[in-house]
User: What shape does this take?
Amino acid sequence: MRHAREIALGIRTTEAAGLAVGLLVPFGGLAALVAGRAEVLRDLDVHVADRLHATAAGHPGLVDGMLWWSLLLHPNTWRVATAVLAIWLARRRETVLAWWVVATMTAGGVLGGVLKLLFGVHRPDLLDPVARAYGYSFPSGHALNAALGAAVFLLVVLPRTRGRIRRAALVAAGVAVPLITAYARVVLGVHWMSDVVAGLLLGVAVPAITVTVFQGRRVGVESGGVHIR
Assistant: This one.
């Protein structure tokens, strides 16, 4: 019974801590450039925005697809999905892991909102826009929550998945979905490239940080993961 109550995550504490640092360093550098209104970053953002806007203007089907993608994979979609995951874990009496899911999604959402207010970056203002969004821009909430939600699902589901093909497909989806979401937000002209890059970095960094914190209570280490209760 004691062993059955232990919770396995598909990443070790040292790996999580190293990943967190490795992601926070480039995020911090990017944030510093944004805060300093660095001309080099601004020029790159504008260049990418103009190129992708030209692509979007000439491909209405692409715009429709990216609009639907953004709608279906709205941050609230990830919040509902992870809430269902947390309930499922709680029903299996994996309470600590359920709380980890809730705490991670909450921390990521709050952090993203606070950073938007702190940096106060305005969204692209394009001629003949193909889509509109409101509020501040940095970091992208869609990109952040997509990376955050995908990371949470991967960490919980991957250790429970059997078969190389299934595991590979799960990892591929966990990488592709946030990247497509980030691309969608830029091609729609509602975010700068720096917004979505920051969102992706932060969306993976937050779970890495919370894994490190939660696994501070670990009771044993086995090959394939750290066990906490």
